[in-house]
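hey so u asked for the seq, here:
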Amino acid sequence: MIITKEALHALPPSRILGVRRGIEKESLRVQASGSLALTPHPLALGSALTHPHITTDFSESQVELITGVHAGVQSCIDELQEIHQFTEGALNDEMLWVSSMPCCLPADDAIPIGRYGVSNVGRAKSVYRTGLGYRYGRRMQTISGIHYNWSLPDVSSESYFGLIRNFRRYAFLLLYLFGASPAVCSSFVAGRQHQLQSLGKDSMYLPYATSLRMGRLGYQSDAQASLAVSYNGLQGYGDSLHSALTLPYPAYEAIGVQGTDGEYRQLATSLLQIENEFYGTIRPKRVIHAGERPLHALRERGVEYVEVRLMDLNPFEPLGISAQTMRFLDVFLAYCLLSDSPPDTPAEIAAIAANQQRVAERGREPGLQLQRGGSEISLAAWGNDLVQAMEPIALQFDTAHGTTDYMVALQAAKLGLAQPETLPSARVVQTIESEYGGSFVAFARAQSERTKNAMLEVPLPDSVRTRLEAQSATSIQEQQDIEAADSMPFDVYLREYLSPARLGV
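ran it, structure tokens below
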């Protein structure tokens, strides 16, 4: 676990300053009551199909805010704040829900699926989401989070996969430190089997949970559990996804691509409709060309960056994530890249899954044991070992940036390991119990109101407002242009886009 001097020498200041990061932040639009907003995506936010910074995710009610690529943590945070302020200002009586676990939800079939217009690409996006609803239920798809996109100069695809393997090994530490979804609204589990305990009249929780979002109630799929994805190199990873994207899956064949009424139910009957359906804590990524399949881009040009997908929204942070957390992620990812990363094995993959479930549901339990190398070790001991091993990297980041901010981020992690009561997940439970009578909804609603008011109190510079308004208007025109240019029947478009030949080799 110790970083060698040779590895540190491979991380000079010039290379550290070449780190690039970006954020994608998902949030539900809700009414003042805390119920899901069933209104269309606000026109003032432009087209969800073409806007570069503001779109929707699964649901029409689920906003996704996307920053550009940034050389600095603070500039990334600043852009996210600008987009956030603009969005909150366009919502009128609605607001963005601050928790990863959803608000009060209506019946499953009443949750609106994202709409992207009448173009072939827009219809395909909606059909994909219809398929997610059939496969997993719409409630699960309303879970929100933060994705952190990260790259370092001069990293090969092989090295990025080494990073990914280590990330999966050590991701328990991120769930422990930054998990912030220990409680849910009772509507989320209505009609489902679960092991949650009552927290209040409308709330359920687990006493030591960190991130129910990443546990059995969250992004879990029995079907995808059967998918043996290889992270030992690009070819194996590509072959794994290729099979999942092309081979029929019996349960999804039973759903069918179209119903008896001719309406599309899903894009395909394979285990994965498209690449984005694969649920992983981290993904290798590549910027794609127009109309290109993501797997083809990876196979043709290699890994360009990684996408971290396990971060909860922190309801105590107005933007859902802090600069300090981002700096910890920078060091954590660099550590995963630079430390030795042997190939994974079926036994280790099973241990990783077991560790994730334990930490998601019991992470703050005193003395919690995890599996490492065929034996057990306490989460606290393993976590402290990792943080200590990261210190030389944090020092190099601080030297490159002329700060002490990165070491401060590590010190905060040490505090969280020593005092679990300071963690976001513990604070959520404590605040719900002490200030909101055990009501998760009342807590999240109050925090959402607080966040919206804080955003609206800060003046948005006229130049920023003008730019974002122009982007909204341009995006609407771009959607109209795409719709006007379509000449291919939708079924032909789908057949061509989903052709195995477009996945590369």
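The radius of gyration is 22 Å. The first helix runs from residue 5 to 9.
lmk if thats what u needed
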